[in-house]
Amino acid sequence: MTATGRPKREPARHVVARVDEIAEGKSKLVHVEGRDIAIFNVKGEFLAIANRCPHEGADLCKGNVVPLIESDDPGVVKLSRHGELVRCPWHGWEFDLRTGKSWCDPARTRVKSFDVAVEQGKRLVEGPYQTEVYKISVDEEYVVLEL
Amino acid sequence: METSVLERTDDKAETLGVVDCDVHPAFSRPDQLSDYLPERWKQHIREYAIRTANPLLGTLPYPRLTPGNGMRRDSWPPAGGPPASDLDFLREQLLEQCNIDYGILQPLAAGSVAFNMELGAALCSALNDWQIDKFAGPEPRLRASICIPQEDAKDAVAEIDKRVTDRRFVQIAMPPRTIEPAGRRRYWPIYEAAEHYGLPIGLHTSAFGYRPNTPSGWSSFYLEEHFAASNSLQTVMSSMIMEGVFEQFPKLKIVLVEGGFSWLPSLFWRMDREWKRMRSEVPHVKRKPSEYAAENFWYTTQPIEEPEKNTHLLDILRWIGPDRLMFSTDYPHWDFDDPRYAFKVPLTPAEKSAIFRDNAIKLFGLEK
Prior knowledge:
CATH topology of chain B: TIM Barrel
Largest sheet of chain B: 8 strands, parallel
Order of helices and strands of chain B: EHHEHEHEHEHHEHHEHEH
Largest interface: A-B, 25 and 21 residues
Strand content of chain A: 35-45%
Radius of gyration of chain B: 20 Å
Order of helices and strands of chain A: EEEEEEEEHE
Number of helices of chain B: 11
Strand content of chain B: 5-15%
Mean pLDDT of chain B: 92
Shape of chain B: globular
Largest sheet of chain A: 6 strands, antiparallel
Strand order of the largest sheet of chain B: 1-2-3-4-5-6-7-8
Distance between the termini of chain A: 27 Å
Structural class of chain B: alpha/beta
Number of domains of chain A: 1
Oligomer: heterodimer
Low-confidence stretches of chain B: 1-13
Structural class of chain A: mainly beta
Number of strands of chain A: 9
CATH architecture of chain A: 3-layer Sandwich
CATH class of chain B: Alpha Beta
Distance between the termini of chain B: 48 Å
């Protein structure tokens, strides 16, 4: 039996936040198709990962947003990628907001990352998109998550 | 704001509630304990503060994971105050969410290690009143620990005598980093009282102690402090066994809290071997050291060890015996273990109910 003729499942676009709702360095928890997803504002860019920490289940949306801390030699510390990692609110696992991989165990301990984009309200009103709560205004910008 | 909320499938297969052997209640304001002190000590603290062996006054020797100071970042009560100071939020976030039937309070405050021993005794007594007034009184699922000034055994025993008829107290609490190793005879009157009353003694690894966190002094990093906790509990065990405490008090029950357990096999392989070779140095130690470990000691699980291969944990756990381990969360501290997810090994239903509930019910007499 082949899949020929069956409808393809198109990715759905969900309007999950108004851009001004998530301040820089902050996050918002959203629920989309039964999933808990944490959306972060990293210097104006929006990144999304699954909210549940794979280690013991804490809410990553409540974690501290941190830079990458590295050291080539004792006494020399390098900070980079400011705001691009979230540290779990319980045990401090650091997850890369761009990939969902943890820094210490990227192969095994990782969360799913999701594509998000910022869209103008005037483009959204043309659809297709899913929103049950947001009244889309043509003058505003929205965070749209693809699932 | 949400477009849809689906119920997350819950792993809570077990219907029986959990016993959490390590819950840390907190003061709602820094001077709250003074409400339970006589005027003489209130004034003393105002004028001279509470001096302990900690190198810095008024802070932990290793301030940690700030902002949050070592607390779960999601544990700050919405109504204000520090984590675990608000009973309603503690009920909601810990007892309800984690299906906890009983939580054993482990107050971490300076009473047992104050340099001024009279002040220390007063602080312990105040801590005991405070636990009942704010937590174990209004919430029957929470049970208290009798804090004692262990360096003055007479005062310590007096505090035990004073509290023992109140069944809301289910254990005696003392810190592991005592002035002398825990097996020394200056502490025996406490052990005599504990055995007499059938009350376990919980030794919780703690930021407080008379001694530095390692045998060579203070470590540089908090990360080192975090596992130095195991060393302090190993010292407690070997000292109590080698001094003959359990020959004198065979029914004494000791709970080692928050120091791990995976080190037990190797410690006792060594201790048993040396005992076989040098038993004549300690003829009062009549049995193999591991036999005392299997009869007089219990161990709480948090922070759970996480070997690369989870099944290794199972081997260790079965060496120790599932009847010795008792689940704990350490709420509201950052290294909290969630009973639903902490054990990543396939326990049998019997092991599970022993570790998560039955061992503690029996040890602390919780359902009498």
